[in-house]
């Protein structure tokens, strides 16, 4: 249902640090023009932890309207509170999102049974396709392949965004789940290996600045043009993906977007501007890859 290059969209802010509505429209057009296969607002890269509930819902609504059905919109609606996630998920469905991205509950560290019940309760309450987002580095708990295999039996769990960085775990997911669930990479740096074990795409940070390349790379792989896909990955996607993590995401990618003249604006605290040495390094990378004037 969801495959190819889906961008984890940044949330642009205006000079008053409020949501830049026109900026969202411009970003959506930029991605549609450059072949992005799906838009994912209000994820980690979209600074969802610093959006109020009202702003969160507004960003989803603005994105859905801007996309206008041209590509799927998978709205970030996860929370460490099951009831809160149900509320956001229900709103996303009413707004017209095509699916939702449900991040692992963070901070409260549920057991595997608790994780299963969390996701099951959400998708039982709201009938919308859901992508489970496993990101142990931010949630402090890891969704085991055996638990995901149980979730894959539920009709609304259609995909997993795997950001554990553990290729063996992802291989076990493919072994246990087969075609019951779509594996999406949650880490641009290992996109090619994930595709090689049966992944169908990526929810991407770096696609914010090189959407054409990420989309083309996945399409080349899916078209059995492995060497072409490998060439794009090694020459562009991999090195720029590393640059996106000179500091905590989304600091570098939002800085890069701003340098490129894309709608971005400032970061919201507790995210702060890049350290000078990292900023210079990022700027040099953008120039080297032709994304900035020298």
Describe this structure in words.
It is a single chain. The protein is of the alpha/beta class and 294 residues long. It has a single domain (4-223), classed as Aldolase class I (TIM Barrel). Helix content is 46%, strand content 12%. The chain is built from twelve helices and eight strands. It has helices at 21-33, 53-67, 82-95, 112-125, 136-139, 145-151, 167-177, 191-196, 211-222, 226-243, 251-259, 276-288; strands at 4-8, 38-40, 74-76, 99-103, 130-134, 157-162, 182-185, 201-204. An eight-stranded parallel beta sheet has the order 2-1-8-7-6-5-4-3. Helix 7 links the parallel strand 6 and strand 7. The longest helix has 18 residues, at 226-243. 48% of the residues are buried. The model has no long low-confidence stretch (mean pLDDT 97).
Strand order of the largest sheet: 2-1-8-7-6-5-4-3
Main sheet record: 8 strands, parallel
Q: What is the fold-level CATH name, i.e. the topology?
A: TIM Barrel
The gyration radius over C-alpha positions equals 18 Å
Q: What gross morphology would you assign?
A: globular
The figure for the number of domains is 1
Number of helices: 12
